[in-house]
TrEMBL record, chains A, B:
Name of the molecule in the record: Fur family zinc uptake transcriptional regulator
Origin species: Rhodovulum steppense
InterPro entries in the record: FUR, Fur_C, WH-like_DNA-bd_sf, WH_DNA-bd_sf
Cofactor note text: Binds 1 zinc ion per subunit.
GO MF: DNA-binding transcription factor activity; transcription cis-regulatory region binding; zinc ion binding
GO cellular component: cytosol
Keywords annotated in UniProt: DNA-binding, Metal-binding, Repressor, Transcription, Transcription regulation, Zinc
Cofactor: Zn(2+)
Top-rank taxon: Bacteria
Length: 162, 162
DNA sequence: TCTTGACTAGTTATCTTATAACATATTCCT
DNA sequence: AGGAATATGTTATAAGATAACTAGTCAAGA
């Protein structure tokens, strides 16, 4: 769907991009017997609207506007479900959440965060993960989860004035 | 001082470890003309007491007990100074801060966080950083800062019961 | 059918983390 | 000494996250 992560920073047919990711997620949920309930589904759709990370309260506002509950746990629970099952990722550096571009596929994402436009891309991180494990090995540390995030400038924002 | 990051998870003379790091930081501050004032110095000492990350409010409590201000900005400002000048690191995953084990040396730290004992080690991340840049390259993304953190089990916590 | 248990979604209340804005004091340089 | 820059302190508030409880849904089994 976006195997190399190049989509987010390139101009593309985002309606198709969004719909594809959603359909993909639905198929995965179906296959795994997970209940993609209305709030959860809507939360995912909201995250899929842009290639940016959204704070839990941003998502909550949107959900509340649409008739779902207006209290923080509503958003946090939906997001927790999405993250737990691989439909979304949590971006620690931003205290925010973003839809996963590869739901259902095992992958270690590398997040590239543009400090100018807030764009977020999910690059393939297998090699980075391997080298992280190599770094941890000599210390006898057993890696279970990792977060790999970079802040910088996306191609579009590297232009003139910075 | 701990070039390979093995110290944190191994039993060692921590008094010497702490004093060495502090002395090193002082030398760096001196050389760079930075003012390691009493609050800042004390905040660093507090971080150096253990190989764990501390929340800003934990540091604040300690500072307040010792006669410094009791309001959040007191801790946040001291910590911001330490991070900005490379005497400490911010651990995003934990919303916490830890003393840097290599102040004054350019380095990309890889943080290894033990989920059982909260121990924190700072492994050398040059290779990981390089592979991250390689992952970002094809997207045309210019990396400026990165955070690389892993959660797992340190050698001591891999024992029997988990 | 009715009950029980698992799960979902809603609420109130509270906690933790972080920053804005302003006042005072200190330090550094001329 | 005077003035600029830096540092420390305050109050108040914003932003992010969770605990604890209540109630609705739904399917399996008595
Ligand atoms: Zn898109
Ligand atoms: Zn993903
Ligand atoms: Zn030590
Ligand atoms: Zn360091």
């Amino acid at each position: 769907m976006d195997p190399d992560g190049t989509l987010a920073f390139a101009s593309h047919d985002h309606a198709a991009c969004r719909d594809g990711a959603l359909a993909h997620a639905e198929a995965v949920a179906e296959a795994k017997g997970l209940r993609l309930t209305p709030v959860r589904r809507r939360a995912l759709e909201i995250l899929l609207e842009s290639h940016q990370a959204l704070g839990a309260y941003d998502v909550l506002d949107r959900l509340a506007e649409e008739g779902f509950g207006r209290q923080p746990p509503v958003a946090y629970r939906a997001l927790e479900f999405l993250v737990e099952h691989g439909f979304a990722h949590r971006i620690r550096r931003l205290n925010a959440f973003a839809a996963c571009m590869h739901p259902g596929e095992a992958h270690v994402p590398v997040f590239l965060i543009c400090s100018a436009c807030n764009g977020l891309a999910e690059a393939p991180g297998a090699a980075v993960a391997a080298s992280l494990r190599q770094a941890a090995g000599p210390l006898g540390f057993r890696v279970e989860r990792m977060s790999i995030e970079a802040v910088g400038l996306c191609p579009a924002c590297q232009g003139g004035s910075e």
